[in-house]
């Protein structure tokens, strides 16, 4: 009887220990590194409230790249941080001063450093909903567009398809906005709205 009790006690201890180890492994999660670009996008630059007769901005040749590190907390939640860079050409049409005069058109560039912080919630098997703030800093001077330095936001849906135990391909349609909270706020501050598709290569650091 004592032997039986010891066997049962050992089984209970092993079961609890196994559950604890499994929980710790899930808690420790999976680390990964992702390199991505946004080759497809639609960009709109304008203040929240448009003014009649005001000048307009048109973005061309937007391209961004990002290096992102991800920590998988458990089966549903993961968190990531990264550093990225975006560049675009901006065509500015001057405000209407005199309807009889031709409006002037200017061309300039906009280069922005990004630091995104995101939370991801997984659903189904290979899909994620992600959202979070972006710290961003304009790297070049541009007198035609309000300075794009501040706190922005990003939200999107992504999928990750494994190629092997170490590598996967990611695809992420997303919306991103610069200057939700600009560091240098002005009346009718320009905001950059980006609807893009991000493509990336993921490397799993820890299995």
Automatic annotation (TrEMBL):
Residues 37-142 form the Outer membrane protein beta-barrel domain. Pfam families: OMP_b-brl_2. InterPro entries: Beta-barrel_OMP_2. This is Outer membrane protein with beta-barrel domain.
């Amino acid at each position: 009887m004592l032997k039986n009790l010891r066997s049962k006690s050992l089984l209970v201890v092993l079961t609890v220990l196994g559950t604890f180890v499994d929980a710790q492994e899930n808690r420790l999660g999976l680390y990964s590194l992702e390199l991505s670009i946004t080759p497809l996008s639609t960009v709109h630059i304008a203040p929240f409230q448009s003014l009649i007769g005001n000048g307009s901005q048109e973005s061309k040749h937007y391209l961004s790249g990002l290096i992102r590190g991800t920590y998988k907390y458990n089966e549903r939640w993961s968190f990531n941080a990264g550093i990225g860079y975006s560049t675009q050409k901006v065509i500015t049409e001057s405000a209407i001063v005199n309807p009889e005069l031709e409006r002037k058109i200017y061309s300039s560039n906009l280069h922005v450093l990004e630091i995104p912080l995101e939370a991801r919630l997984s659903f189904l098997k290979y899909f994620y909903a992600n959202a979070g703030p972006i710290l961003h800093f304009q790297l070049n001077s541009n007198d035609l567009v309000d300075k794009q330095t501040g706190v922005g936001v990003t939200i999107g849906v992504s999928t990750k398809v494994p190629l092997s135990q170490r590598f996967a391909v990611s695809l992420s349609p997303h919306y991103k906005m610069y200057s939700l909270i600009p560091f240098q706020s002005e009346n009718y501050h320009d905001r950059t709205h980006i609807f893009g598709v991000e493509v990336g290569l993921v490397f799993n650091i820890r299995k």
